[in-house]
Amino acid sequence: MLIVIIVVVIFFGIYLAKPKALSKKNPAGEDIHVNDIILADNIAFFRGLDKGRQQQFEKEVLEFLSEVRITGVDTTVDDLDKILVASSAVIPVFAFPEWKYINLQEVLLYSDTFNSGFQTEGGDRNIMGMVGSGYMEGKMLLSKHALHEGFKNDSDKNNTAIHEFVHLIDKADGATDGIPQILLSKQYTLPWLDMTFQKMQEILKDRSDINPYGTTNKAEFFAVVSEYFFERPDLLQQKHPELFHLLQQIFKQDPEVAMRKAREKIGRNDPCYCGSGLKYKDCHLKKDTALK
What we know:
The protein is α/β, with parallel strands linked by helices.
């Protein structure tokens, strides 16, 4: 009897230790799997969530993958590619669990940058991502290299895929104008417009660390500062507290708290989250300790 009990305990121990994977079918009828180990290894935002919210994140990633096709144009698409795309979609709207990207049916994944004719060879290949319009309506185009870089380096302010999904959020009210009316409460609309104008002027006068691409128009400003908000919330809060506060009101999130928790879970000898290849203790540990 004792032997039977020991065997049962060992069996359940092995079962519980296995990586948990949720599964569903994608629009093509293929099985899709979302593994919490892959998420924890690659998505800092996910690492900063408590267990219950991690389960919610996994569910929303799986839901996105069951509704939106991800197609490789000149490259293969693996599970990690799919999870990175879906995570980019979920992160900005994580406080809105019922959100659906009704204006997106397919993500086209290119191996690297492409040009305005969607070509990956020749000159002028400087586009890393874009939301399609006209005959490309309902599609998003992303550079696979840029997609991975956006999650590999957590110390910069850039994430191309999040940038493009923020454009879709902006577009959901019928106009890509930098005013996400579906998420933005009316009392914050004028303050947001004033802040947009103020910060764009600071960029133009070379008095800001915000990506100058944000001065292209209000829509690009919204997408650029949203990247900053989710990639380096600590720095944005320090340098632009009022802008940080308004983005909190829009996204109903405080990613700085999640980032802090994610970094607390990194061991001294683990690879640094910034993607440098160094151990955490030899890279960002001192800087992160000073910020506490």
